[in-house]
Amino acid sequence: SLASDPVAIDIPYLFEDSGINKVGDKYVYSYCTNWNVTAEATKEYGFTNANIAYMVSDNPMGPFTYEGVVLKHPGSYFAGDYNNNHHAIFEFNGEWYITYHTRVIAAGMGVSGLNYRSPHITKLELNEEGLFATVEKTDRASLEQTKYFDPYAKVEAETMATMGGLSTTQEGLSS
Questions:
Q1: Neighbours of 48 (CB within 10 A)
Q2: What is the per-residue pLDDT for 159?
Q3: Distance CA 98, CA 73 (A)
Q4: Separation of alpha carbons 90 and 23, rounded Å
Q5: With a threshold of 0.70, does the pTM exceed it?
């Protein structure tokens, strides 16, 4: 059951992939902008196609006010990588991060036409208002490793950043 009736949010150029975080005393609603952003909208809002934009409110039910862009389209950072920005924003150990995908590994492997997506993570900075500053540059080596894996323990495949051309087999199972 619902605690209250749903509330519609007026979101400029919403495509998909939205989430909400509490940052300080503000509620931040982030989302991927769509693929039909007009030149007039770019002038008005400051975003283009497939950016991660965000809106802010004092209340999780709104109203929300458009604030800015936290992550530009991957093509802004990685030449030729023109896809959308599915994302998640989260706080870890007192720092804010954004995860998203690109196709830089596929491009590096010379693969095209397939939907290979590479996960990325970038540390976010807060601006003077205590909200997310736009990521100005990102690369595959933007974060320090926080800990090492135990080489004697099972390590899940999703922890790998690259595995192009590798294959795996399950060991120890009887047929």
A1: 19
A2: 61
A3: 13
A4: 10
A5: yes
Decide: helix, strand or coil at residue 159.
Answer: helix
DSSP annotation of 153 reads: S
4: tokens are 């209250």
Using the predicted structure, report yes or no on whether residue 169 has a pLDDT greater than 70.
no
Q: Please, which residues have CB within 8 angstroms of residue 48's CB and are 6 or more apart in sequence? A: 33, 37, 42, 72, 73
Q: What is the CA radius of gyration of the chain?
A: 19
User: Which DSSP symbol is given to 80?
Assistant: T
Tell me which of 6-20, 27-41, 80-94, 152-166 is least confident: 152-166
What sign for the dihedral angle of Cα 161, 104, 126, 40? negative
Average of per-residue pLDDT across 40-69: 94
Helix locations, the chain, DSSP H: 39-45, 104-108
What is the spatial order of strands in the sheet that 52-57 belongs to? 14-23, 26-33, 52-57, 65-71
pLDDT of 104 = 77
Is the link from the previous residue into 63 a cis peptide, with omega within 30 of 0?
Answer: yes
Distance CA 162, CA 142 (A): 16
pLDDT (0 to 100) of residue 175: 55
